[in-house]
Amino acid sequence: MDPLRSSFNPNKHLKEEFVSNLTGSSIVEIVSLSTIVPALIVLRQYVCSKGLCDPLHAMKITSKKGKDGTIDCRNWRIYMSTLVIDFLCVVLPTLLFLTVLAEWTNICAICLMLLLLFCIGERLGSCSEKGSELAYSIRANVSAYRVSMMIVTCLCILAVDFKVYPRRYAKTETYGTGLMDLGVGSFVLANSLVSRQARNVSSMKWKTILQSTSPLIILGVGRLIFTSGVDYQVHVGEYGVHWNFFFTLAGVSLLTSLINIHSRYCGILGLSILIGYQLCLSSGLNEFLLSNERANNLFSQNKEGVVSMFGYWGMYLVGVQLGNFLFFGNNQRTRIRVWVFAVIFWVSTIILDRHVERVSRRMCNLTYVIFVLAQNFQVLAILVLSDFVPGRKASVIEEAFDRNLLGSFLLANMMTGLINMNVDTISSSSVTALAILVGYAFILSILSGFAAFSGIKLKFW
After folding, report:
1. Quick one: pLDDT band at residue 71, thresholds 50, 70, 90?
2. For this UniProt entry, which segments traverse the membrane (predicted)?
3. pLDDT given at position 10
């Protein structure tokens, strides 16, 4: 290897081994981790509804900039102070539970849920106009769900490179339920629940198709060029040699656009694809995908990424019908339905994992798809409890991330790359790692807040 090239990332192979051959954690621990973040978000909304620790409570910012184009300093200071409080209440505790407090996850999840239920009960008991105060907001719940997913994702993609992050939370090699295994599946599902198809506004125009897929292809090619150019660590068993997360999203978007059907039939088609794909896996396709042998052609080099698209496509189609049924139809019973689906999906995950095939993110098998549905619907189920908090309102940090989900994710990826290229993450002590992670999370939150306050929104389609 060329000395100049290798100097960019001298610990590449060590870092690749650091995230390889992992088996994940238990389903119980995943349930606990999936409880903590939404509970923190709802508790913060409760605090905001009470006007506690909320500098914006008595002041609604209606103008982002002055007449001369500059940000109003008084509003800016209040906004940023509120953002910092939100960071301390939501992001920082999440980071701690993912690192130094990982062994206390189960106990803390129970305590947070008990506290949340107590707060809701207290708030309802003191409300004289219960019927009119329980304003139901589908958009707010879905936005909070997408934000919670993004916060955890942004924290994990850097934390996984440090020893302070438990190895059981990282992506599994073949089978297992690691927290980070949920990442790409959650992105696909989150997009499907609020997609154009779910809202019945899909279009077969080639312009629309290109607008939805070309940015993802460009990002995928850009990531490939960057990782190759600086010799950045890439776990080949994850997607393949050249494939990456953005190509999977682009492929799913392209397939869904080309085979365009009404949302009410998407679930049937998606489930048919998932069952057919699982039958192929059980007939021997899984052995091919999990084998380390690769022929000298693009398909074999990227077999995991290419073949697993059938699983993600089926998941997307199922998500489209669920989104249409829950969020764009009769919304009166949505809260109950979300809880029922969460329970059904978790029970189904356990049954499939034991009697069909274990969860495998690498192949995106049927069990993995149901696992993703179960975890995401659990998060949604906890977030809809905020409807029982009269006068609740989204926190500033929720609004900041929600306005720029794609921008926040890309910024987190760039910061992660820069830190990895300049810090020996594997050898860093727990104190050093935690300091870097807190600084990274704080900067990411501040920059996301600045973009939201300034009206900056990164969106290609």
Report:
1. very low
2. 20-43, 78-98, 104-121, 142-162, 174-194, 206-226, 241-261, 268-290, 310-329, 368-389, 431-453
3. 67
Percent residues over pLDDT 90 in the chain? 54
Q: Tell me: the pLDDT tens digits for 244-286?
A: 889 999 999 999 888 888 888 999 999 999 999 999 999 999 9
Q: Say what the pLDDT of residue 93 is.
A: 96
CA atoms of 210 and 442, how far apart (whole Å): 35
Helices first, then strands: H and E counts in the chain: 21, 0
**Backbone φ/ψ region at 41: left (φ over 0), alpha (ψ -120 to 50), beta:** alpha
Q: At what angle do helices 366-383 and 303-327 cross, to 10 degrees?
A: 40
